[in-house]
Design a protein that fits this description.
Oligomer: single chain
Radius of gyration: 23 Å
Strand content: 15-25%
Shape: elongated
Number of domains: 2
Helix content: 55-70%
Length: 146
């Protein structure tokens, strides 16, 4: 009998300026039933504010073209859910997720610090002024040729 293996990688990304994973990936990595994971989130014993801050329901299209739901999950939401997942392999995967969150948060912090640099902002503004000036000059030159 031939055995196939699947690559199980925690997926942590920056989406809309937030570091998140998603329940679809969590179910895949931890070998959980995705529908049950969705129900677990909906039945969490936590404040409404915590739930709204750490879980956001989104839709995706599965490989068969069917619209499905999942949650985007921030770090604190992941930690809350992961507390109920046990096993040696699962502990390794939790660690990999946490490293993914740390890495993406570092990237986000670096990008934000670049965007807050006043010299980069002025440089961008100067580029916009230069482009406007070039465009105005091009229009003048086009009129002169007629």
């Amino acid at each position: 009998m031939a055995y196939t293996t699947r690559s199980i990688n925690p997926e942590v990304r920056i989406i809309d300026g937030e570091v998140v994973t998603n329940t679809h990936n969590m179910a895949w990595v931890f070998k959980l039933d995705h529908e049950q994971l969705l129900q677990d989130i909906e039945q969490l014993w936590c404040s409404k504010a915590f739930k709204e801050q750490n879980f956001s329901k989104v839709s995706y299209t599965d490989p068969e073209g069917i619209l499905q739901e999942m949650y985007r999950v921030k770090r604190d939401g992941f930690v809350l859910l992961a507390r109920g997942i046990h096993g040696e392999k699962q502990e390794e995967q939790k660690k990999a997720y946490m490293e993914g969150f740390e890495h993406q948060e570092d990237l986000l912090a670096t990008d934000e610090s670049k965007n807050k640099n006043p010299f980069l902002q002025w440089s961008h503004l100067d580029m916009m002024k230069m482009q406007a000036s070039i465009e105005a000059e091009r229009r003048i030159m086009n009129r002169a040729n007629y």
